[in-house]
Amino acid sequence: MDYNILCIRDAPHLSAAAAQWFHEKWGVPREEYLCSMDQCLAKRRAVPQWYVVTLEGDIVGGAGVIQNDFHNRKDLSPNLCALYVEQPHRGQGIAGRLLDYVCADMKQYGIEVLYLITDHTSFYERYGWEFLCMAQGDGDENPSRMYVHKAP
User: Fold this and answer.
1) Segment among 101-105, 135-139, 142-146 with least mean pLDDT
2) Cis omega (within 30 of 0) on the bond before 12?
3) Is the whole model's pTM more than 0.85, yes or no?
């Protein structure tokens, strides 16, 4: 299948559809995604950034990079967030390609270290991420795993 990874800064026409798609996956208000994407487009700086994976024009995956993904470790920044691949498209390496793309894109901005918070216990290790510590998510009862990725 012919999947395309696009950065919203290079495909601003997708920002409304991407904001709706991320909202449907994560429950964060659509307007918050739109605001973050507008910052990405307006300032042309490294953070925030938003990425989508498309297949025949439909969004089937995505991720973002923001300063802090709603956790208590404000010193660990920026954060990869909202990684999601639609169920029918999983198991095809899309998440791995998207993670590589995001890390390479951030490296071109001089950002060689990214963090993420997750409840997954082995998924990210497959893609070169290393467990760093536990972090408390805003409003979460239990801490979550914090991972780090350093560019080679």
Assistant:
1) 135-139
2) no
3) yes
Q: Is 110 left (phi over 0), alpha (psi -120 to 50) or beta?
A: left
Local structure of residue 124 (DSSP, 8 states) = G
Q: Are β-strands 130-135 and 113-118 bridged in parallel, bridged antiparallel, or unpaired?
A: unpaired
pLDDT tens track for 50-81: 999 999 999 999 999 999 878 888 999 999 99
Burial class (CB in 10 A: 0-12, 13-18, 19+), 103: buried
* Neighbouring C-beta atoms of residue 4, cutoff 10 Å: 12
C-alpha distances (whole Å) from 7 to each of 65, 133, 136, 143 are 11, 29, 29, 31
Interatomic CA distance for residues 24 and 36, integer angstroms? 16
β-strand pairing of 58-66 with 49-55: antiparallel
Which structure tokens are listed for 121? 């216990």
CA 53/CA 120 separation, integer angstroms: 21
Q: How far apart are the first and last CA of the chain?
A: 29
Q: What is the pLDDT of residue 140?
A: 86
